[in-house]
Amino acid sequence: MPHRIEVSTDVNDTRSDVMEQKLQSLGYKISAAKTLEVYTINKEFSGIELEQIAKMLSNPVSQSYKIDSAAESGFDFALEIGYLPGVTDNIANTARETIEDKFKLKFSGEESVHTSSLILLSGAINLEAVKKISEELANSLIQRIHIKSKSQFDQDKGMDLIVPKVHLKEHPQTDTVDLDIPMDQLLKLSKEGIPNADGTRRGPLSLSEDYLETIKAYFKKEGRKPTDIELESIAQTWSEHCKHTIFAAKIDELTDGLYKGYIKRATNEIRKEKGEKDFCVSVFSDNSGGIIFDENWVITDKAETHNSPSALDPFGGAITGIVGVNRDTIGFGKGAKPVLNKYGFCVGNPDDLEPIYRDPDLKIEALSPKRILEGIVAGVNEGGNCSGIPTPQGFLVVDDGYKGKPLVYVGTVGLIPRKINGKNSWEKKAQSGDKIVIIGGRVGQDGIHGATFSSEALTAGSPATAVQIGDPITQKKASDAIIKEARDLDLYNSITDCGAGGISCSVAEMAKECGGCEVELEKNPLKYPNLEPWKIWISESQERMTLSVPPEKLEKFMRLMEKRGVEATVIGEYTNSGRCVVKYNNEKIMDLDMDFLHDGLPEKQLHTTYQRPKHPEPDFPEPSDLTDTLHQMLARKNICSYEFISRQYDHNVQGGSVLKPLQGKGMVNSVASITKPFPETNRGIICSQGITPRYSRLDTYHMAACSIDTAIRNAVAVGGDVDYMALMDNFCWCSSNESERLGQLKEAVRACYEYARIYGTPYISGKDSMFNEFKGFDKNGNPISIEVDPTLLVSSIAVLEDNSKAVSLDTKIPGDLIYIIGETKDETGGSEYLKMKGFVGNSVPKVDGEKAKTLYKTFRQAVEKRLIASALSPGIGGLAVTLAKKAIAGQLGMELDLSPLPQLDRKDSLLFSESQFRFVVTIDPKRKEEFETLFAEFPHYEIGKVTESKQFKIAGSVETEIDSLNRAYRKTFKGY
């Protein structure tokens, strides 16, 4: 018989207080929202044992509990929210393990633990209001909702005892698929999926017409029809998400395509030029890229996006993204340790409450931008904090174009010895005869069609099963067992993560290393029985790694995993047969040629058009009060403080934080971070990013150039060396099957090649997401399409040899001189200032790469000489915003005069132009001559000094106080 334990917080019940405040802020007349934790335990225990369990699950100082009895406090409605059957429940998993450890037993069969939240609502509310509250608090894709009035609650003696169960047909089978059908039916098969017996469809395969014809021809040659698992496997492997077909395709005159012709080519040429000074060890060939940290260690870097699932379930999408990119690090070479996380969120305006819908009947409402923002922030929080990985670096971009589909960037930097057991750590190869071992989480229906779903626009047909929820605790145990023990014991030959496409991709990709594989699919551990074979094969259920283990080392490996509480299962063997063979209960259900599976997709030839847009010239009078304008700018969502995110993310865990996410006494968000991976050395890892999507509305070439320059410049500002710096590219595009969008993409990638070559900064990894648009309906049922601006995130990583020379952004000493280095031009096109005024403009910022590189090398010399007391590079918001942020951070005043700068036609252009390759620095006045001599060949202007007062003055333009600037900077997200 199942049992129910309700835990109530009686002292300092902040959870209930926060719930009450949240509902009141949403306009509900709530007087109380008592929130209880509920554990449903589907296993027989004695009364004494249940008492012991309840005590373990509650805090004896502040909480009380009830076992199999109802809450007695007064309320008007009871609202319970729990997970739907089959959805990962991390807290329940931890509770189950705690119970197992306590009683030295194992849950078996359908025995389980489930959690839910019970909210006891009091106030002037009715049933309809409670239903609306439930929609605010729960995501119907993954959560169940149960509502009772107080009278019904009393009559039933509490809430119902619900044990979520997944009900599947008892005898799963493999079907064959007929491809000898008209093309319109084939395209329906691609769009909606393989038909089930009841007429429903399984979800998108996302196969284009030429792909379908190629697959038909292959199976005609094989003399048979494909099985469902074969077709699903090909779809995952050939998906845009996995194969990056647009970047690989021939495009106009580029026969090598965008990736080989521009990105990879740039890296190859740079590495060749660096010769013996080449610091790259592994690029584009593994889960992450790797560069040399010192004589003993390599650092790795990887960033990816989790956009589509985050639009459906922000928390699940984001946590899956961050733990997934952690696994990319664990899967680098023989296994790297994650040492820091990064994030970037591009979202719609959180204040936008206008509903949009995924269906014409207006029944499937898309999540609001605020709901999405709160969910993705919480997801990365849970994934990073619970994994014990610091998260010091990130950014927030707000724009209406991200309303329908957010961009959720997540990244991880890893650390691995250069040599492991005398071999290069980044080299690995599965051998024929090795056992295929899966470790970590179990397989369920979550994550079905995740890869193919991510290759399409978000619509009403987007599958709920594409959403997964990561379990960082399970993954942490697996990570530690691998990185801290199995790796250095040399117990496996190769390792990779189970990400997009699940084991269909991880096993088959590793099989390329030796030439084949044979899988016994029924041996996969499942979350629930009777899962269909094709689902087992392509499920993206989380926390799993795939390894190739030599037979003679298998017993030792399995014993180690068991000892560390990590589930490990042998599901087959790697071969040299040239075939990918999958069996289910001794029946062969998949038998594909390895070359066809990986390289059989037809080559694409893409053609582009590109017309740079022309926007109306801005036409508005120069503001008479530039002080008020600066305050308004500081409150803009793309400029203001987002410390509500930074403070949630633990950046001090592992003890290596040098330059933190919030800097100075005034705690201003930084644009770069420095992390020290070893306490005994003084070398640090510099991370920064550049992202300027609004410039895409003017020119994607210059957008990309500015993103690259920003990522490099931000790292240089804190002490980075442009000669020892690597980049990553993450493209997020929309409608990438349209020639104009492809033309924009081609121009952006061309800039990536040209500027990387100028700076000498190789790309070591990257990722693209090509269909980021929302196709749905407005509140009146009219069709709408919301496309993101073409967006490129460029991440930089560098090594700082001496952390004591790190440069923070905050002013520190009254009397220090303030300089701007670099030219300020009338380049307000695409700026945050013109956006505030309702314009786009045309004068996009441009980067002179040769001048910039020379400047950055000189700046590095200044850092080495300890000439720079503080530095911040002007970016979004321009010069005035940069100066204000430095003043807020240092909590010191500034006396400024911009007259030494070449003057522009308007003061507001001078203050808010977003010209690139500039620095605002402070220096000791005693070193003025030395500073000016070093920067003699560059435009540099002394514009003021740091003062003890709290006054911030720009002569003839702005006069305010630090406290006023600070209030403007912090008020926007206050209360988040």
Describe the 3D structure:
The protein is of the alpha+beta class. Among the domains are: 154 residues, Phosphoribosylformylglycinamidine synthase subunit PurS (Mth169, Chain: A), CATH 3.30.1280; 59 residues, no CATH class. Helix content is 33%, strand content 24%. Strands 17-19-16-20-18-21-22 form a seven-stranded mixed β-sheet, with helices on both faces. It has a seven-stranded mixed β-sheet with strand order 35-37-34-38-36-39-40, sandwiched between helices. A hairpin with a 3-residue loop joins strand 39 and strand 40. The relative contact order is 0.10.
Strands ordered across the widest β-sheet: 17-19-16-20-18-21-22
Distance between the termini: 42 Å
Give the biggest sheet.
Answer: 7 strands, mixed
Please give the CATH architecture of the domain at 3-156.
Answer: 2-Layer Sandwich
Task: Show unreliable segments.
Answer: 450-464
Helix content: 25-40%
How much of the sequence lies in strands comes to 15-25%
CATH superfamily of the domain at 3-156: Phosphoribosylformylglycinamidine synthase subunit PurS
Q: What is the 3D form? A: globular
Number of strands: 40
Name of the CATH class of the domain at 3-156: Alpha Beta
Radius of gyration computed on alpha carbons: 29 Å
Tell me the number of helical segments per DSSP (H or I, 4 or more residues long): 30
Query: From the helix content, strand content and strand pairing, which structural class follows?
Result: alpha+beta
> Overall pLDDT, averaged?
92
CATH topology tier name of the domain at 3-156: Mth169, Chain: A
